[in-house]
Every structure is written in structure tokens, then in C-alpha cells.
Amino acid sequence: QSYCHRLQHDMYFLISTSRLNEQVVDKIVLQLNRVYPQILTNEEAEKFRNPKASLHTRLSDLLKHLQKKGDRHCQEFYRALQINAEQLFNDLPSRKILKTPDPTEIDTDKEQYMLNDRGPVFFLACFSMAAGLALFWYCCNSETQVIGRARRILGFSPIIIGRHVRNICMLYLEDMSRN
């Protein structure tokens, strides 16, 4: 895909919701004006840096002007954008298309959000259910000695549960072992 087509595809993204601020646009125009090869003449650079015109108008005029000039000019715009606003450059729609050339491939960013949208309550519910099933299976198994092992675990857990709760549990376990 040529840089002119990419710029046409990214134009709405760049212009909408003020993704580029005045300083970044001025830096890009200056770079296109001063760096070899000179893409913008001095008059064109002054036109696109005119503070009397709105940023939206200047940016859309700049992008249209670059598209008319050709592929090399659009390529230099992308280079200037990458240097001056790397995060925005990485978020461009055309860059995301280039990153996933296979349309059947799963977009990992979307998949990450899809897996994590359930929240902490869902995680706690699943964890509690798994812990409850494990405890039930452990307690119902006739080959294990639950009381002795539980006493050892509770004896070493003063940090996890309070001293009073631990004493009550220990008394309960001793009472259960007598019966």
C-alpha cells in the first residue's frame, strides 16, 4: 500500500478529536521544511504554521497538500510523525493493518480486553469455587487424616487468621478428635 493511500486512510484519525496539538504540528511542518529532502517550501511552511487559521484546517490542508505532491512527501510526513509523536504513530489505523497482515489472525489487543472484562468479582467467585471444591474433595477422601493436618496448618497460621479465631478453631478440632 502506498504512503498516499495510507495517509488518506489515516487522515480522519489524525484530524479527529485533536489528536495532534499545535506544538507537534509545528514540529512536523518545520521538519518537513528544514530536513533534507525539503518537502515544504518556506511559503508553504508559513501557510501551515499560520496561527490565525484553526489547527483542524491547517492539518487537513497539510495532509491534502502532501497527498497531491506524491508518495515520497507522504513518506516523509510519516517519518516526521514517528519522530515527533511516536505513540500516535503506533496507534494509526494503517499501522494496525500492517501489523496484522492475515485477516484470520486474532488481534491480541482485543483478545486481552475480551478476557479481562469480567472484573475482580468474577475472579473471586471462580477462585472461591475452586478452593471450595478442593476442600470438599480433600475432606471427603477417607484415606486422609483431616484433623491432624488441619491442626498443623492452623498451628502455623497466626499471621493469616487472628489469635482468637485460631484458638476457637483449635478447640473445635480437639473436640472433634475426642468424638
TrEMBL record:
InterPro entries: CARD, CARD19, CARD_BinCARD, DEATH-like_dom_sf
Residue stretches in coiled coil: none
UniProt-listed GO biological process terms: regulation of apoptotic process
Amino-acid biosynthesis keyword on record: no
SUPFAM superfamilies: DEATH domain (SSF47986)
Membrane topology designation: Single-pass membrane protein
GO terms under cellular component: endoplasmic reticulum membrane; mitochondrial membrane
Pfam families reported for this sequence: CARD
Keyword Nucleus: no
Major localization class: endoplasmic reticulum
Keywords per UniProt: Disulfide bond, Endoplasmic reticulum, Membrane, Mitochondrion, Transmembrane, Transmembrane helix
Gene3D superfamilies hit by this protein: Death Domain, Fas
Transmembrane region(s): 120-138
Domain of life per record: Eukaryota
The CARD domain, residue ranges: 1-96
Cellular compartment(s): Endoplasmic reticulum membrane; Mitochondrion membrane
Subunit structure: Associates with BCL10 by CARD-CARD interaction.
Protein name per UniProt: Caspase recruitment domain-containing protein 19
Organism of provenance: Sylvietta virens
Gene: Card19
